[in-house]
Design brief:
Shape: globular
CATH superfamily of the largest domain: Alkaline Phosphatase, subunit A
Number of strands: 21
Distance between the termini: 95 Å
């Protein structure tokens, strides 16, 4: 019974009909044929081979589901391993990872295998290559392709058929162990050295919200910083205007010295240097995320530096350049510029640059809820800002971990935006127009943002060395709007007032609570003075028809006009406003309503926290000023004292003789914004509620 006999048996199995599925074939008694007729009877030595042949389905499928279980598990394990080697992706949700890498691909593989075995196998082989191509960075070595190549080899080996020994080479149990091992692979280990100081800014954070959340255990990471750390109230500038305050926090001096007075300023408008400007001059590394007036990044940054400007920057330039995608994501959410970037492209960028799985899942849920859910604008606004904070925190934590700058600073502005809009739902007792249903539906929106910031704080701390010094600050606090005009919530329609003045090209305005900040756009000081004098005079002369008292109160603060509505006994909704001799409907220049649209306003007290090994050296004071922050950070970094500082470090044991005195270098004149910068900035400020 040699090779020829085996060939004859195979030929019989091919040419002769079977009496029943699985029946063996036998040679009739007395037959002398070398290739006997196959008839039912006793089994032959080739029955194993024939059984294997009979088990093939018409589409080439294997026997049983073991092969497909093994294939799906190996493909998922290879895909996830390739991604983990290629990117600092943090698998913070095992269930999401199992769904993304194992469950959904397995379902697709099973469905395609119903078409043909080779189609399902091909997909299983290709998936690890596709995942690696999506996650791989240009700096990753070519050796990473060995992961999908090895996975493909194991899958093909599992499909090898020899005498019916399907899947015995790589059994499902072994592939299950491999898949679970890859799924449970711990997150990347944080660096042992590098970053010395973290400055974390939370725009609008207040102890009035934080303290109850900490007591309830809902901000565990901040609570950990407070244990053994130092806390204080941080008194802000009289204006409480964010661009001025954050610039003071970075320079250690007020706007009259540092030169930044409004959102329309640029980096080259600084008249003094910031903390990171001195670090750069000394050749020391730094990283920035979301800080105002850091656009464009310097062209000579090093391999440990990074700069991601705020979303109010004129364009998406960042360093490293690929991180500009965060700006483009935000740009897509507002109408001021139509970016031709798809959600898929932005998602791939986020995935490649180490955004956490929980954030990616949240993004998918957010997009789906926006497209297919029944969300109102109030339902959506806080969710979008929470997702924005999660994304920003992921990127910053990943950069701190991978680039290890000596100093890194991040500014989260999502709490401020949310507090302006949702404060009345958090404190409904101060706003009788808020219904019980509204308070229940939106009352936790601000808490959700604070808890998201706390989660980001945890990510950042896990990415930094254990001996890092952490400074957490806010530019101001928050409180309920108390000021009304004759029982109405009034807000100046800034753009309409500027247009009525005929000064759209000459003046830039910003709303803050019930005040408006107006600045001349000219680069010539003489021209700016002329414009501000004319605009201020016209506004002081503005009247309501039939009245003699002014409609507006106008004061001068440096190069800024601060405009508010003068107290009055009634709101003449149907009256006309006389501005420069022309009549304008009251409603066209003043928004007045019994319902507060923006119910939260700035408070003078922000937050200050110092945590880390040097917290024991903190000055024992429960109240600091925003001008004290830059000297404190400089003291932690061992930087020299700037002669323009008006504050003091909140640390004991520091002396000028130890640190020295030097004038910090200016940011430089790099970067020219596009001509339409002011119009684009106006649209962006409208989108976040800073312009009416």
């Amino acid at each position: 019974m040699g090779g020829g006999m085996l060939a004859c048996v195979r030929g019989a199995a091919w040419y002769h009909p079977r009496t029943r599925p699985g029946a063996p074939y036998a040679v009739p008694a007395g037959s002398t044929s070398k290739c006997p007729e196959a008839v039912p009877g006793a089994p032959t030595e080739d029955s194993v081979e024939r059984t294997s042949l009979e088990s093939r389905d018409p589409k080439g499928g294997p026997a049983g589901a073991g092969f497909w279980i093994t294939t799906a598990l190996l493909s998922g394990a290879g895909s996830m391993a390739a991604v983990r080697f290629a990117t600092p992706l943090t698998v913070d949700e095992k269930s999401t990872a199992a769904l993304m890498f194992f469950v959904l691909p397995a379902v697709l593989i099973f469905l395609l295998s119903a078409i043909h075995r080779h189609v399902g196998t091909a997909l299983a082989v290709l998936l690890p290559f596709v995942w690696l191509a999506a996650a791989r960075d240009a700096s990753d070595g070519l050796f990473l392709w060995l992961v999908p190549i090895l996975t493909s080899g194991l899958i093909l080996l599992a499909g090898w058929r020899a005498g019916g020994r399907t899947v015995k080479v790589v059994p499902p149990a072994a592939s299950l162990v491999v898949g679970l091992a890859v799924l449970m692979w711990p997150a990347p280990v944080r660096p042992a050295d590098g970053t010395r100081v973290l400055l974390i800014g939370i725009d609008g954070a207040t102890w009035a919200v934080i303290d109850p959340l900490v007591r309830e255990g809902k901000m565990p990471n901040l609570e950990g910083c407070l244990d053994g750390g130092h806390r204080a109230r941080l008194r802000t500038l009289p204006s409480m205007f964010s661009p001025q305050v954050w610039s003071t926090l970075a320079t250690g001096c007020p706007p009259s010295i540092h030169g930044i007075e409004g959102f329309d300023n640029l980096q080259q408008d600084f008249r003094v240097g910031r903390i990171w400007d001195q670090l750069r001059a000394e050749g020391r590394s730094f990283g920035l995320s979301g800080w105002y007036f850091t656009w464009p990044p310097p062209s000579d940054l090093g391999e440990r530096d990074f700069v991601i400007p705020s979303t109010l920057a004129p364009d998406s330039r960042a360093f490293p350049p690929e991180y500009g995608f965060y700006w483009r994501i935000w740009a897509r959410e507002v109408s001021w510029r139509q970016e031709s970037v798809s959600y898929l492209d932005m998602g791939l960028n986020a995935f490649r640059l180490g955004v956490r799985l929980s954030t990616l899942r949240g993004a998918v849920v957010d997009v789906a809820g926006r497209r297919f859910g029944n969300r109102t604008p109030l339902d959506q606004a806080w969710r979008s800002r929470r997702l924005s904070a999660a994304l920003q925190g992921d990127i910053f934590a990943g950069l701190v971990r991978s680039r290890r700058p000596e100093f890194a600073a991040i500014l989260f502005n999502q709490v401020d935006k949310t507090s302006h809009l949702y404060w009345k739902f958090l404190r409904p007792d101060s706003f009788p127009e808020v219904t019980e249903a509204q308070a229940e539906r939106y009352g936790l929106a601000i808490h959700q943002l604070y808890m998201e910031i706390d989660r980001n704080l945890g990510k950042i701390l896990r990415s930094a060395p254990t001996d890092v010094s952490v400074v957490i600050v806010s530019d101001h606090g928050f409180q309920a709007m108390a000021s009304r005009t004759a029982g109405q919530y009034c807000r100046i329609r800034t753009e309409n007032v500027i247009a009525a003045l005929g000064a759209t090209a000459d003046v830039f305005g910003t709303n803050l609570d019930q005040r408006v900040y107006l600045r001349a756009t000219s680069t010539l000081e003489e021209e700016r003075e002329r414009v501000l004098a004319e605009v201020g005079g016209a506004l002081r002369e503005t009247r309501v028809s039939g009245e003699t008292k002014p409609l507006f109160e106008v004061t001068r603060d440096g190069g800024t006009l601060v405009v508010g509505i003068a107290p009055r006994d009634a709101v003449p909704m149907e009256a006309a406003i006389i501005l420069q001799g022309e009549k304008h409907p009251f409603r066209s220049l003043i928004r007045a309503s019994a319902v507060a649209r923006f119910s939260g306003v700035h408070d003078v007290d922000g937050i200050f926290v110092l945590s880390g090994p040097l917290a024991s050296n903190a000055v024992l004071s429960d109240s600091l000023n925003v001008v004290d922050v830059a000297p404190t950070v400089a003291g932690l970094l061992g930087l020299p004292v700037s002669p323009v500082w008006t504050g003091r470090p909140a640390l004991t044991g520091l002396s000028v003789s130890d640190l020295g005195v030097t004038e910090y270098p200016l940011p430089g004149q790099s970067g020219t914004p596009p001509p339409e910068k002011n119009q684009e900035l106006r649209e962006k400020l409208k989108a976040i509620g800073y312009l009416e």
